Description:
The protein has 25 helices and four strands. By secondary structure, the chain is an all-alpha fold.
Amino acid sequence: MRRLALFFLPAVCWPAATPVSVDQLITMARSAPPEFAAEALVRIAALDKVEKNQKIELLEDAFRRAGEVQLPYKQRPSIVRIAGPAGVYNRAAAQGLDALSLRLKAVRAMLPLDGVRARDMFRRIPPLKLPRVTCEQFLVYDVDAFYDVLEHLARESFTAEEMQKGEPFGLIETYITAMTSAVQLPGAARLIAAANVNDRDFETLLAEFSRTMVKMTGDDRSFSYAAAGPQIHAVVQAAEKRKVPAAPLLEAYRLYIVTNMSGARCADDDLMVYEGTSFAFADPRGVDQQGPDPSVYFNGHLRMPPLQEIKEVEVTPFKLEGVATGLRSCDDSACKSIVERYNDLIFDSTHSAYPPSHRQTPEWQEQVGNLLAAMADWKPAAPAAAAEHFRDKSSLYSDLTNIQPDAAAKIKVLRAELEYVSKEKASAENRAQWFLPVNGIIGRVTLDPLGLGALSDDLRHTGDAVIALFAELESVSPRKPDQIMPLF
Length: 488
């Protein structure tokens, strides 16, 4: 227990010189690009020293600025078993710097302050218009948080009288009938399973969910990523508890599976099967993943008489077309050379891992210094490869930090990384990807303030207003370890 307490203690001890005032933080936040303004304002509004009326004002401001950000929705890689950019995309998505995620953060923070205002903000979120994902794309949309927040609103924002009148049902129904993409089904199904509505309204939601679901065709990438079997199972269990017939839902889900599996499918769907390990961090679908074949899950977990098992002939694809591109990176000779030098820090000439004691030797630290020098000189192979280069280089800095034997060695690498990312904002694919390594450095200082505290001044004085803002914000509103670890 003592060890656990010591692990969590640093999260509230971020080193600070003279912390800036709340008013100064607000001014810094409002002058930042919209992603960072919205994120910072939500965090500032959570501070105990901020009065309720000001919290509401800050959250309204954050909600407004969220509408100006670069990315409309969170996207995650659907294929995570191949070494490449999938891990970066996953970690960048975990920051929640897309427009929808930021709006939802503001709504969720508003709920305990003013439920009516929170519902009004939620209704002002533009309708979800998720583009179809082609087989050549490996990023799919992740809007689960939309339905999670909706469930909280339906449960917590209405008075007893309003709930008696069925107003939560009206709120939920609007968004069930508006679904257009397969990736919405898991979140919507969880919402229905947990809905605080009467049995009649629950049955209506099932019917509308079923009618909407069977219309979703022509996007195999999204279908394969979010086939929703376990979530449908949860709805069926909720229906059984209520003694509401689940057969119409299962009939619709059977039709949905057969229609999508017998149509045109991506030729690399087998790569989307989650097997418990990946080159990205933990697959966000986790234990809900149902396996490679939704029809097998249906037959084994959902089918009930008089529905027939789904036969193989019913789900044989009409044709296979297209595979995802951009799954791999570091294909040019300069990158491969850098990676080879990094591997030489870990493995000897027989490809056996060096013992930890080897990293304490002067020879090993000299190798690290030489690698840092080579990385400083490493440039993109071509202007068009700048974003890929930024992902590869910042990721390698992070990996190199992870293998350093002590805080002093880590600081040396992190300072080199900070210098790089503070000068290369224009190279990143978008602001969220640029901020990921910055966010990681700030997070490392939060987790180890005694060892890495010297970096706090570096962060404040890079000359970049966004980095300075979040360094100051961390000193007054430090995040918990579980909010930081997904960044690495």
